[in-house]
Prior knowledge:
By secondary structure, this protein is mainly α. Helices cover 64% and strands 2% of the residues. It has nine helices and two strands, in the order H-H-H-H-H-H-E-E-H-H-H. Helix 1 packs across helix 4 and helix 4 runs parallel beside helix 7 (142-168). The longest helix is centred in the middle third of the chain and has 27 residues, at 87-113. It is globular.
Amino acid sequence: MTNNKKKKKWWEYLWILTSLYFILGFFNVLFGWLGMICFLTPLMISIFTGNKSYCHHYCGRGQLLDLLGNKLKLSRYQSMPKWMKHKYFRYGFLIFFLGMFVSMIFNKYLVFQGAQSLRGIITLLWTIKVPWNISDVSIVAPWIAQFAFGFYSMMLTSLIISIITMILYKPKSWCVYCPMGTMTQLICKTKKR
Length: 193
């Protein structure tokens, strides 16, 4: 008797690391710095290989959305509106997220220079303050903590947007307009010229 089950590859479990990232951030926002791995890795892979293998294989968020949508059946399996697939929406969303990233870096810089004090809050959708604050960030410089608060807020916001998209449409609909996916696609197109 043979076992017909396909053996899973190690990268098919990266959704666990993504989940762990968000859980750890609830208890100590300084884990927000680990999100830089999810920010830099796809860029490095696309720069050095010229492909989107990160998106296709290694993206823990995509795997988590697939698990929630397909395995747990939390998705409505509806097609996205055409405007969400359009390049203007994808590029506009990328520019918006990059603007939020630059704003976060600028706030970190102001804290570093002493022109602004640490704003130790996590926000969702850039405006809603999260009601918990159990992180002790006194062990690091204020600018390090400021970056962690900002980056974790951005990662948590994008997770919420991706889950809403997964529920309303197909499980991996987020991947259509994911800012990282759009950036890696632009890098791959540039390398192929």
